[in-house]
Amino acid sequence: MSDDPIRLATIGRIIRGRWRLLTVLAVLGALFGYGTSLLFPPGYTASASVLLPGQWEERELLTQVDIATSSTVVDRAAAALGWTGVGGIELRDRVAAKAADGNIITVSGTADTPERAQRLADQMVHQFVTFAARIAGDSADPEAAAGPEALRQTVVQTSRRITELAQAADPGRTVEGVQTRTELAQLRTALQEAVNKLDQLTPAANKANMVVMGPATRPAGEAAPTRVQLVGAGAVLFFLLAVIAHLTAARRGRRLRAEPEVAEALGSTLLGTVEVLDEGPAHRPAGRGPWARVRALLGVDVRWDAPAPRESGDEAGRQLRYRRVCARLRDELPAPRRLLVVVPDGDETARRAAARLVVEAGHAPSPGSSNGGCPVLRTVEVSVDRPMVPDRDDETGALVVLSAGSWTAAELTGIAGACADARHEVVGIVLADAVRARPTRSAARPRDAATPVLAVGDEATGGAR
């Protein structure tokens, strides 16, 4: 798994293999999100808009946005509201402003209740308009502001006088009269254009007249993030973290799969690979202790990244593999011995393979026969966390049976060290592979005569002592 690319199929295998654990973690994440929502009370946001008449450039609108959320405006709004324990510093994090199309500035305020949010937005808009008008009034020179208005009055009077002169002139009887009327009309038009240009060059008076586009609307729902959003985000976060943790563990996993790696870690030779029919999760070994029951309940006692069992041949082919392992084991030993069959604790496939191997060894010729026989086998299960192998008694060696891809090099090295401490030489290794039975057309299911139900333990033997 450490060299495989991460695909959607891999994530699907994690969800199928760990759906119970992922469900529990998602529920815990939802509870975490709910607890977070209790620490941060819900907020409500109300908004009010201000229209800026006239022509405004983009940088001027950004300046007005900064003015709307300036400390002066916020402090004045806080003083006008008079909320206990809420000053300008606290309000700065609750107010915001932005410029929209059409010279509109939207000011929003967030509070713990809809009524407070509405009052905050209205007060911020009121203080912003007041402060902006004061800035425009203070920056304008009264004499300079009065000059254009007087000029407009003069232009109006002049235009009126021009109209009177045009009416008093000869109404089109002579050429001189027509020219006079034309010149007077052009003069009136030129004066009107000059006034229009003057209005465009002095827009400060229009810009100071900001218009509040109605009171803020009372919010009907909570502002983001709401309690529902926090609960959902917590569930999704814990779910994703669990999936990422599974992927990271698989990437960093050092479980040995190749036969040479397993043989090197145990310091012995590989005698062969045997096949065990996969019984599915319903036939998992019973847990020991409360933690084992919890692991079984959550489904973490079975590996999610284990390869799918491949399809096997018939029962005769599987039995032949066990007999060949017994033959190789007999060839490896100079004389018949009594051996310990060491199985890692929790490796159900290896445990069943060891039971089958004990049976096949019992069916082999006895140690006293002329052509030699298979060693007498006794099965023991060894914990990989703290491996402990029984001391040497009648046995003079150990045969390690395990499934490939389930244990790391450090765990296998620990088992080999435990065998050496108990003065047992590892005489061989047998790998167990879980397989699926090939479906047959006949309705009758073949009888697995060579796999009796045995209680494999320290007293299971493969023949008479």
From TrEMBL:
* PANTHER family recorded: CAPSULAR EXOPOLYSACCHARIDE FAMILY (PTHR32309:SF31), TYROSINE-PROTEIN KINASE (PTHR32309)
Superkingdom field: Bacteria
Q: What are the alphabetically sorted keywords of the record?
A: Membrane, Transmembrane, Transmembrane helix
Q: Which organism is it from?
A: Streptomyces lunalinharesii
Transmembrane residue ranges: 21-40, 228-247
Specify the protein name.
Wzz/FepE/Etk N-terminal domain-containing protein
What lineage does UniProt assign to this protein's organism?
A: Bacteria, Bacillati, Actinomycetota, Actinomycetes, Kitasatosporales
Q: Does the keyword Transmembrane helix apply?
A: yes
Ranges where the record places region Disordered: 440-465
Annotated signal sequence is: none
